[in-house]
């Protein structure tokens, strides 16, 4: 017959108390953190899946953040392209008005204004890098100093830029051109300003100047239409980037949901376990406190 001592009873009660403490501690931690474990070791065979998934989320989120910056850049590009088109439309309106009305012309001033707007627009920099400089981003692509400089030199001398457009990968496989090079986008507009300025100065318009200006009006449609097409292209690029952001955000959410299924606890289930653990702990503590003071005399 096995002998039972008060020491054995106390030891068993202590072991039960320690077990209930551990269960209570784990349930309390899971309730507070809402995760199943405090570190990767706690996930066992699912650790590799978690590490891979979190790395994938980080990579995709980085592309989303970069795409969001590109979206802001394209909004700025749209603004300068719109302004360039508007200043050329204003110049055409001034020419039409001055051809129709007698008196001093304001064409010279409008040409100067259009030149400055176009130069500033296509020399746009973001974070110190030229937007319309193609692959050469270290300096402004429009180098003509003035309208006079434009008139005195071949039109190609007005630009210094990279030969190719800047491209970027926005989603891991899709290459997108960000902006045309300045010469492609603005050469026709600058060439028109060069031709108009060469026919000046314009004070009281002469018959020869009126004839020459009328001949240039048709070219305005080509120049303005080219700028409109650039605006449309910019808008299309912006739509593609927006779609890439939305598509990748869906990916991040889907992977995040998978990670959540592995790491996050069922709060209702944990609450039930915590309640049970608290009850068990209280019972174990009560038993331990009772048996700790027992001796064989109490039993006998």
For the biggest sheet, the summary is: 2 strands, antiparallel
As for the number of domains, it is 2
- CATH top-level class of the largest domain: Mainly Alpha
Q: What's the CATH H-level homologous superfamily of the largest domain?
A: f41 fragment of flagellin, N-terminal domain
Q: Nearest-angstrom radius of gyration?
A: 38 Å
Number of strands: 4
The succession of helices and strands, N to C, reads HHHEEHEEHHHH
Helix tally? 8
Q: Which percent range describes the beta-strand content?
A: under 5%
Strand order of the largest sheet: 1-2
Helix proportion range: 55-70%
The overall pLDDT, averaged over residues, is 77
Assign the CATH architecture of the largest domain: Up-down Bundle
Low-confidence stretches are: none
Q: What can you tell me about this protein's structure?
A:
- This protein is mainly α and 300 residues long.
- The chain has two domains: 64 residues; 205 residues, Up-down Bundle (f41 fragment of flagellin, N-terminal domain).
- It is built from eight helices and four strands.
- The strands form two sheets. The chain has a two-stranded antiparallel sheet.
- It is rod-shaped and about 120 Å long.
